[in-house]
Write a structure and sequence with these properties.
By secondary structure, this protein is mainly alpha-helical. It folds into two domains: 95 residues, no CATH class; 89 residues, no CATH class. Helices cover 76% and strands 0% of the residues. The radius of gyration is 22 Å and the shape is globular.
Length: 199
């Protein structure tokens, strides 16, 4: 699926602005956690303004598109880390260490679930696209579908997004693909958390 067909021009322009704001936000978060260059008041003002802007963007998106569109959920996904980190910043700034621990754990759990939902959705979209392409390329042959085990070895695929990849087997390939995706996502999330905790 191409981004041009997925988003309209206004949404594409919005994503460009969001990328710039995300870069500034990331720089301030990195400064707060590791660099300590900016004064606290500057950090607070920048993070506060970005949080308010994120809340406004989320509210406008909900009013315009409702919660039934992918665009709303994308905006919610992008704004969640902003709200979460600003909450952590406030806990740290006002010395609420116990609350900070709970906010950090809760936010990390929510971030894990958000990423898991997007990875499941993405894999499903790609798999459906592959299957649609495959159906368009050949005539539907019921006999071939019923006798998948007799496929020739030349049709084997290594693509992990393809439910017909040979390593998913013939019994419950969708389930095996889902389990494989879940394990891969968990391992990647854990690895990123370990790397970030060592910085």
């Amino acid at each position: 699926m191409q981004w041009q067909s997925f988003f309209d021009r206004k949404q594409q322009a919005t994503l460009m602005v969001v990328a710039l704001v995300a870069w500034v936000w990331t720089a301030v978060i990195v400064d707060w956690l590791w660099v300590f260059y900016l004064p606290v008041i500057i950090q607070y003002v920048i993070l506060g303004l970005i949080t308010v802007a994120s809340g406004g963007w989320l509210a406008v998106t909900y009013e315009k598109y409702s919660a039934k569109t992918v665009w709303f959920w994308l905006v919610l996904t992008v704004t969640f880390p902003v709200f979460w980190q600003f909450s952590l910043y406030n806990c740290h700034h006002f010395g609420l260490e116990l609350l900070s621990v709970y906010v950090a754990r809760f936010g990390l759990a929510i971030l894990f679930l958000i990423g898991l939902v997007w990875s499941v959705w993405g894999v499903e979209q790609i798999a459906q696209g592959i299957e649609l392409y495959r159906r368009q390329q050949r005539e539907f042959d019921l006999q071939a579908v019923l006798q998948k085990k007799y496929r020739s070895s030349t049709t084997k695929t290594w693509n992990p997004f393809d439910p017909e990849a040979w390593y998913y087997g013939h019994k419950s390939p969708r389930l095996n693909q889902s389990l494989s995706g879940f394990v891969s996502y968990c391992a990647t999330f854990l690895l990123v958390c370990v790397i970030l905790s060592q910085l």
